[in-house]
């Protein structure tokens, strides 16, 4: 099962600069474990224990997985996963 994972700029150091990588897994948790096996260190930047980090948003085919089943969300062949860290700051 091939799943495209879009990687934000801040995490591309883990993917040798790749904007997108392929991964496999029946759930998001499985996908993140698969990514970790090839891109050491990336999982801990996305997941804290058994849940998504507070300031990391993950989208499955443009749907926020927090409104689905979190990291237990089921995946299908051809799905697109986007990892998007929250951005804060600016001027008053």
Tags for this entry?
single chain; alpha+beta; Ubiquitin-like (UB roll); five-stranded mixed beta sheet; 2 helices; globular
Task: Report on this structure.
This is MoaD/ThiS family protein. Pfam families: ThiS. InterPro entries: Beta-grasp_dom_sf, Mopterin_synth/thiamin_S_b, Sulfur_Carrier/Prot_Modifier, ThiS/MoaD-like. The chain has 92 residues and is α+β, with helices and mostly antiparallel strands. The protein has a single domain, classed as Ubiquitin-like (UB roll), CATH 3.10.20.30. 17% of the residues lie in helices and 27% in strands. The protein has helices spanning 28-38, 42-46, and strands spanning 3-6, 20-23, 47-48, 51-52, 56-60, 63-64, 80-85. The strands form 2 sheets. The protein has a 5-stranded mixed beta sheet, with helices on one face. Strands 3-4 form a two-stranded antiparallel sheet. It starts with a strand and ends in a 7-residue tail after the last strand. The mean pLDDT is 92.
Strand content: 25-35%
CATH superfamily: Beta-grasp domain
Tell me the helix content: 10-25%
- Quote the distance from N terminus to C terminus: 47 Å
Topology, number of strands: 7
Strand order of the largest sheet: 2-1-7-5-6
Q: Characterize the main sheet.
A: 5 strands, mixed
State Rg.
Answer: 13 Å
CATH topology: Ubiquitin-like (UB roll)
- What structural category arises from helix and sheet content? alpha+beta
Shape verdict = globular
Overall number of structural domains? 1
CATH class: Alpha Beta
> In sequence order, what are the helices and strands, one letter per element?
EEHHEEEEE
CATH architecture: Roll
Task: Give the count of helical stretches.
Answer: 2
């Amino acid at each position: 099962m091939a799943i495209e994972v879009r990687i934000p700029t801040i995490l591309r150091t883990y993917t040798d600069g790749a904007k997108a990588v392929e991964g496999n897994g029946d759930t998001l948790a499985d996908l993140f474990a698969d990514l970790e096996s090839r891109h050491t260190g990336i999982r801990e930047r996305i997941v804290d224990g058994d849940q998504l980090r507070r300031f990391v948003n993950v989208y499955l085919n443009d749907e926020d997985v927090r409104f689905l089943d979190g990291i237990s969300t089921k995946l299908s062949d051809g799905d697109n996963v986007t990892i998007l860290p929250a951005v804060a700051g600016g001027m008053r």
